[in-house]
Structure formats: structure tokens, C-alpha cells
Amino acid sequence: TIAHFPAVKTLEDFDFKAQPSVDAKLVRELATGRFIAQAQNVLLFGPPGVGKTHLAIGLGRAAVESGHSVLFTSATALLAALAKAESEGVLKDKLNYFAKPKLLVVDELGYLPFEKRSAHLFFQLVARRYEKGSLLLTTNQMVGQWGGVFGDDVLAAAILDRLLHHSHTLLIHGDSYRLRQKRKAGLLG
Ligand code: ADP
Ligand code: MG
All domains of the chain, ordered by start, with CATH? Predict the structure, then answer.
């Protein structure tokens, strides 16, 4: 599977000292790819700019290097693809496509709320992959807000239940790395 990483980012380039809320030891363990062999999930929670996408790409690259099939997509692109496939009567094929890679990286869940139908499609994908393949998900929304993201508390709970069952979670906090660079340059006062 081709990974489609949106940028060149590596774990070697990640400054763990600048982001003490990230457990470097856990990231190193995840980079071995063992979680993929066990079909476990990885959930990265945190506000914008704290390095979620960087880590997601870095871990995705590490997974490719350890011989796993990886597909990287944004939540928005994933849902658009599933909705389009459904309207064209080929949802099953698309679900198979996204269910196939050993690691599916879904970036930026929660920036845009899902339509009700999309939430159902996402549930179907998560249920399909459950205990079979790993999902690595990044989100700016804490689990308490997922009902709002999916527009349905019951569905959000069902999705979370499956995602969290066999999972590693990283809660990243602190300032945006982007704004920190700007602040250093004196642009933000
Ligand atoms: P998020 O996905 O959480 O919004 P990103 O991963 O896109 O944040 O990070 C924003 C930018 O800052 C990217 O260019 C990323 O490479 C960089 N960055 C963030 N955290 C770090 C870090 N700890 N070390 C090095 N670069 C970082
Ligand atoms: Mg991001």
C-alpha cells in the first residue's frame, strides 16, 4: 500500500525536549511496530500545533520501514471518499480499501463535525478494522466532545468503545510549536 504521507516528517526530527507531555519511551516502543502486529490502536489527543501530525507521519514511516502496509488520510478525505462511494453504490469496495492496510492513519478528526451519515460510515470502518488492523488517529477533541463531533452520543460511544479497547493514548498539551517559533522571532510580542 502507498502511504500518501502529506509531508516529510520523521521521529528523529521530533524534539521531545520541546514537548515534555509526549512520552518519548512510548513513542519509541510504538516505532517498533509491535502495536501493529497486535492490531492495537494509537490515539493522539491535543490542541493545534503540538506535533500530532508530525508524530503520526513519523510513526507511519516507521511502520513502513518495519514492513507493514500503511495508508495515511485525513478524516475529511476519508469521509468524503466513503460518502462518494456510497452514493455510487460501491461502498463495500471503499470499506475494503480502507480496511486493508495493516495501519490506517486518520489525521485531524474533529476539526469539522461529521454529518450523521458520515458518522455511520466511520463507525462501519472502525467496526470492520476492530481487532484486525491498527488505526492511528489524531484529534483536537477530547473524548467528552466526540458526541458533538459525530452528532450522536450513542454512535460516538460505540466508536470510542472499539477504538479504546486495545489502544495506546497520548495526551499532548502545551503551546503550538508553530506559534512558539513565531514568538521566539518576536512576532507575537
Ligand atoms: P498538529 O498536527 O498537532 O496540529 P503538527 O504536527 O502539524 O501539529 O506540528 C506543527 C509544526 O510544528 C510542524 O511543522 C511540525 O513538524 C512542527 N513540530 C511540532 N512539534 C514539534 C516538535 N516537538 N519537534 C519538532 N517539530 C515540531
Ligand atoms: Mg495536524
Answer: 24-184 (3.40.50.300)
